[in-house]
Amino acid sequence: MFDHKPTKILTANKINILAIWLVIGSILFYSASKYPLQETFKTVYSHIPGWIEPDDDVGRDIFDLINSRGFEYESHFVETVDGYILQLVRLVNPFTKYNQTRYRPVILSHGVECTGSEFLINNPGYLNSDGTYLEWDENDNLINGSEKITNTLGFTLCSYGYDVWLVNFRGTIYSLNHTKLDINDPEYWRFSMDEMVNIDLPLMIDYILATTTSDTLTYIGHSQSNILMLALMSENDHYQQLVKPFIALSPTWHLTNVRSNLVFFNLFEPYLKLSPGPLVFHDMKTVRSVLSTLCSNRMIRWICYQIYDMSVGYQPSDIRLDRFPVHIYNIPSGASNDNAIHHMQTWRTGRVSHYDHGLEKNLLLYNQSEPPLYNVSRINSAHMAFFQASHDRISSIEGNIQLKQQLSTPLLEDYVINRTDFDHMSFVWSKHAGILVNEKILQLLSLYENDNQTC
User: Fold this and answer.
1) How far apart are CA 255 and CA 348, in angstroms?
2) Contact 127, 161 (CB under 8 A)
3) Where is the Partial AB-hydrolase lipase domain (predicted)?
4) CB of 221 within 8 A of CB of 196?
5) Domain of 342?
6) Residue 451 lies in a domain
7) Any idea what the CATH number is for the domain that residue 388 is in?
8) Whole-angstrom distance, CA of residue 143 vs CA of residue 198
9) How many CA atoms lie within 13 A of 77 on its CB side?
10) Which residues pair with 430 in a beta bridge?
11) Which residues contact 147 (CB under 8 A, 6 or more apart)?
12) Cis peptide bond upstream of 276, omega within 30
C-alpha cells in the first residue's frame, strides 16, 4: 500500500522563509494588481542594494524568445468544440526550412502553469548560418551544437531538423481567447484536466497531423502533459497508433511520496471550489513582471530560490541561478482552479480519475457515485519511454513503479537519472540537460527516422 500523505519537509527556517515570502508576495501582488506600475516598481527597486540587471530574456514572450535566437515561427490556431481558441507555435529553422519535414513532427507539451516557452529558456544562444544552434553556459563558454548536444530542448530539436510544435493548453497566456467567454467570466475557467484530455489534446494532435500530412508524430511531455497523454491513450486506442514515440519527462501519474510544498495547496481546496477562476491572477503579465523583478536582487533571490526549490526542485549545482528571473517570468502562465483541484483529488485519493464533481453531479455525468478511473492497463503501445529522476520531488520512483506495473506492455525505454540535484524542472532547465536528457531523446528519435518520412 502506498502512502499518499505529504512527507514532512518544512524545517523551522524554511517556514520562516515561507512566511517572509508570503508577506512580501502578498503586498507586491496586491499593489501590482491595483496599481499596474511595473516600470515604476522596477525603477525604485533597482536602487536597492543587491540589484542585478535582469537577463535580456526577462520580458520576452515566446515569439520574442524564438526571434532572439535566430529562429522563425508560425502561429496556428484551433477552435475547440466548447469555444476555446488554442495557439500552437511551430518552430522554423530558416536555414533548413525547406528540408524541415524530413522527420515526423514533434510536439513539446508543457506542465501546469507553464507554456511552450518552458522548452526555450534553458540557455541563451543563437542559430548559426549553417543551421547549427550554439549556446552559452553560465561561464559564457560556447556550446557548439555540432560538437555537443545543447541544453535547450526546443531549439536543439529544431536545429537537428525536427518539425517542432509548441502546444499551449486552454487557460494559458497564449491560449486565452474564446468565441463567447471573457477571461473575467468565471465560466471561462470551468475546466479541469478532463477537458484537456478529451478536447484539447486530440484536437491539437489531429490538426498537426493534417497540417504536416504525417501519419504519426512524436509527443514529448513534461509533468502534467504526461498525465494528459496517458489518460487520452487509456480512453482512446486511436491515439496509441498515432503517437510514436511518446516520451514522458517526469511521468507524474501516481502522486506517491510527494516531497513538495505544493501538497499544501490541499488546504486551499475549499476556497478554490467557491467559484471557477484562474489559479493565480487574471493579469499574469503583471504578476510575472513583479516576481522576476523582485527575484533579480541577489539579497532576495535566495528566498525566491528556496521557495521554488521546495516546490519543484531548483538546485544551483544543476540549474543556472542567473536564469532564475527568466524562469519566474515564464511561470506562472495560467491554469484554472479546477485544474489544481483535480491534481489535489489525485494526490488525496491515490486514484487518477475523471474530475470529482460530488455525488449528485457524478451520478448525472458518469452514472455512478465516484468518477471513473483513467485505466492505463488499456494502453498497449510499445512506443513509450519514461524519463525519471531518483530525486524528483513530485514524480517519485515509487509512483512510477506502480504505473509501470499497471501498463500492459514493457516500455521502449525506462530511463532513470540518478543525481541528487536533478529534480522536477531539471528535465528542461538543467545545466546538464544536453547530455542527460536531450542526447537520449535524439537517440530514441533516431529509431524512427526512416519511419513515415514525409519527403
Assistant:
1) 9
2) no
3) 64-122
4) no
5) 12-446
6) no
7) 3.40.50.1820
8) 41
9) 10
10) 319
11) none
12) no
**Residues comprising the chain, all counted:** 455
The crossing angle, in degrees rounded to 10, of helices 38-45 and 284-294 is: 0
Pull the grid cell for residue 357.
464533481
Q: Is 223 among the catalytic positions?
A: yes
Report whether the peptide linkage leading into residue 372 is cis, meaning its omega lies within 30 degrees of zero: no
First to last CA, the chain: 51
Q: Assess whether 381 carries a catalytic annotation.
A: no
Q: Distance between CA atoms of 98 and 89, rounded to whole angstroms?
A: 18
- Cα R_g (the chain), whole angstroms: 21
pLDDT of residue 308: 84
Best CA proximity match to 312, nearest among 398, 354, 377, 252? 252
**Catalytic position from the list 200, 254, 424, 430:** 424
Total number of domains constituting the chain? 1
Q: Kindly give the pairing relationship between strand 72-79 and strand 85-92.
A: antiparallel
Cell numbers for 388, please give them.
525519471
Specify if 338 maps to a domain: yes
Please tell me the predicted confidence (pLDDT) of residue 453: 43
10-residue mean pLDDT profile of the chain (455 residues): values are 41 52 51 52 57 83 98 98 99 78 87 96 95 92 88 96 97 97 96 99 99 97 98 98 98 89 80 85 74 81 83 89 91 92 93 96 98 98 98 95 96 98 97 97 92 43
pLDDT on residue 8:
40
List C-alpha distances in Å: 274 to 140, 205, 287: 49, 34, 23
Which cell is 183 given? Answer: 477571461
Residue 348 resides in a domain: yes
Q: Give domain status of residue 40, yes or no.
A: yes
Query: Model pTM?
Result: 0.88
Catalytic residue (one of 392, 396, 423, 426)? 392
- Is 392 an annotated catalytic residue? yes
Give the pLDDT of residue 300.
80
Cell triple for 213: 500530412
| 117, 223, 234, 395: the active-site residue | 223
For residues 294 and 58, give the distance between their C-alpha atoms in angstroms, rounded to a whole number.
Answer: 12
